[in-house]
Each structure stands twice: as C-alpha cells, then as structure tokens.
UniProtKB/TrEMBL annotation:
One of its GO terms (molecular function) is UDP-glycosyltransferase activity. InterPro entries: EryCIII-like_C (IPR010610), EryCIII-like_N (IPR048284), Glycosyl_450act (IPR030953), Glycosyltransferase_28 (IPR050426), UDP_glucos_trans (IPR002213). This is Glycosyltransferase. It comes from Streptomyces rufochromogenes. Gene3D superfamilies: Glycogen Phosphorylase B. Residues 271-412 form the Erythromycin biosynthesis protein CIII-like C-terminal domain. The keyword Phosphoprotein does not apply. SUPFAM superfamilies: UDP-Glycosyltransferase/glycogen phosphorylase. Residues 22-253 form the Erythromycin biosynthesis protein CIII-like N-terminal domain. Pfam families: EryCIII-like_C (PF06722), EryCIII-like_N (PF21036). The lineage of its organism: Bacteria, Bacillati, Actinomycetota, Actinomycetes, Kitasatosporales. The gene is holC.
Amino acid sequence: MRVLMTVFANSSHLFNLVPLAWALTTAGHEVRIASQPDNVQAISDCGLTAVPVGNELNIMELARSTPREEMANGGVLTLNETRPEKLTWDYVHDSFAQHAQLYDYMADRAMTDELVEYARHWQPDLVVWDALTYAGPIVAEAVGVPHVRMLFGLDHWGRMRDAFHRLAAERPSEHRHDPVADWLGAKGSPYGVPFDETLATGRATLAVAPPWMGFPTELPTITMRHIPFNGPAVVPDWLRKPADRPRICLTLGLTLRDIADKRAPLADFVRAVADIDAEVVATFGEEQLAEMGELPDNVRAVDFVPLHALLPTCSALVHHGGGGTRTNAIMHGVPQLIVPNWLWDERDIAHRFAERGAALVTEASDLTPERLREQLRRLLSDPSFQAAADEIQKEYAALPSPNATVAELERLAEHGRGL
C-alpha cells in the first residue's frame, strides 16, 4: 500500500514518525513524508522520501516572538490544563479557539492545497498525520482514504475534546459554539470535506505512551511501543569503554538555562555535582561552557551524544521531561530526576513516573544546586528507584513494536476508499 505521512516543519515531530515510517517501508509499503520545504533536508537525512508542500514555516520564529512567561502561564499553550476547577466552558472553548489559530499556522492553506493536489495524483491508501498537522485529515478525507492521528505524547487534545462535548451538552443548543468545527469546516470546505469529529481526532489514534500514562478515552486507539529517534548519530570514542563508576546524564536543555537565569549561575549547578562519586555527562553548548569556566573533574561536557548509546551505561538521568528523552529512559531502565518543562505533558508524565517509584520530580522554581545534589544521591543510593525503572522497562518492552503495528494499519487501510 501507499502511505502518506504529514508533519509540520519541526524535527522532534518528524523524528516521532521515523520508526513507524521505516517499519512500513521494510514491510514493503511505499512511504512519503510531506512537510514544508524547511523540513525536507531533515526527512532526507533520515533516509526517507520527502514531499515539500507549501511555504517555509520557520516555526522557531513564532517561538522566539512569544515570551516564555506568557506561554508558561497559559497565553498560548493551555490544552494541558487538568485541574477540574479550571475546566469551565469559557476556558475550554477559548483554549480551542487559540489552538485553532496556532495549528492552522503550522499547516496552512498553501500546505493543504499542495498536499491535496499531490494526494490526488499519488493516490495513497492511508494517511498518518502528526497530531498537530491538520492538513493530514483534510487531505485523507479529500481523497477518501482512512487516516490515523499519531500522538507525540499524552492526548491532551482528545481529553479536552471530551471535556468540550461534555460541557456543551449542559448548555442550550444556541450556546454550543465549536471553534474547532468552524476552523476545520472552513479548512475542508475548498476540497468538499465537511466537518465531523474525525477531522479533529482521526479515524483512529496511534498512541505512543503506555496506557497507564494516558487518559481514559473513548477514541479508537492503537497503542505502539515508541522507538525514540534523534537523527543521525555517532558513538564517541569515550563511550566505547565501560564507565569505571556510576554515570549520570544531565540534559536539561532550555529548562536549565531558565533556572540559571533566575536562581543561580549555571556554574553553581555544575559544581553541585563535583563531590558526587559519579561521572556526570552534561550536554552544554559553547555559550553555556563559556559561562561556567573550569569544570569539575567528574563532569564531561558534550554538545550532543546519542541517548540510545549513552543511557544504557547510566545509573541516573536528569532531564526536562521531553518525549524522546523519557522514552529512552524507559527503554533502558534508567531512574530519573525530572525538572518538568511546561510545554505539553512533561509535568503529567513526570508525576506518573514518581508515582511508580522510578523518578523524583522537582519543579524548576524549587530546584537549587543543593537540591540537585541531594536528589541525585537519593537516586544512586536507593535501589528501589532502579527496581521500579526495571519494571517499567519490562512493561514497555511488551507493547507492540512499530513492526507489529504495521499489521494494524494494513487492516485499517483494507476498509478502502470512500469511508
């Protein structure tokens, strides 16, 4: 069969699709990944076939133009709100109205036009679309083929759609305005695609987190064991030798930079691990290294190291809760100290790991050099964290692989055109 995958121009969302794309390819199916032109090189670097559609997106320009404080406080990213008292009709309705604008920017009319034109020519049998790339369901319905929404983490969108419909049912019919129906109805109209709820949530949802991490849902769901992929990688020389003492991976990305800006110099956090009997592998850029001066003897600074090669040698991982990082931690059974970011599901999943006993969680506002040192010592000295991480690793390994998931997608595509 022919499978068209769609994703907006963002490397982490692309990398989320790659293991399944290769599973489909090695099963003998033709796969094309459609995205904006500024994602084409990244797709090609993954060894896959790219279809450039629309204009360059430059998504980082949007991120840089929106203050992080505004985003963190709900100015843009509000669908991850879970407190019942906050989930009023106005809150849920306005969240969808905001996100309709944001998601339409990420898969705009130019992208959708060219994608529909390509699909009518290429005639795919199935569309798999990144959960933020809403050109995907439009093109699938336009050419009459099944489509699957592929998650990149927890399904906050699906959870909030459930909340929206529940709240709408409690209101008079004339006061049930649905901004998602307005948006996707207008988006599909030029191609003869009317709105129904499958445009918002897919004819099926491909979940990449174990069921115990997710939310209860009535949506048709296929659960897959996600294989983290971070692009082309090279194993460095120093990683080819066994560690002579416990090894800790410290990779906090922008989270640590924000903490350092507000609470203490970055060098203070690095010095905090100097007296821990462990080798600390820390990912720092050139600018960060310049700020820190001389590093402690037990700290190895690297700009990038492939986590799938590093984490099997680690006894603990400190990170911000991102999807690829935490999935690597699950696969390799590594206890975690999570300082969760606020972008999507980082806090939710961090606390699920903590409830299972495989992680400690500290909010960025509470993290100090002293607390970092104290919690790392706990992770290294208390064997219960490793036992819990091992148990989660076993559960995760039992989930269907991308190769096994191909059979599910084949069955879905067998329903054929004209759904």
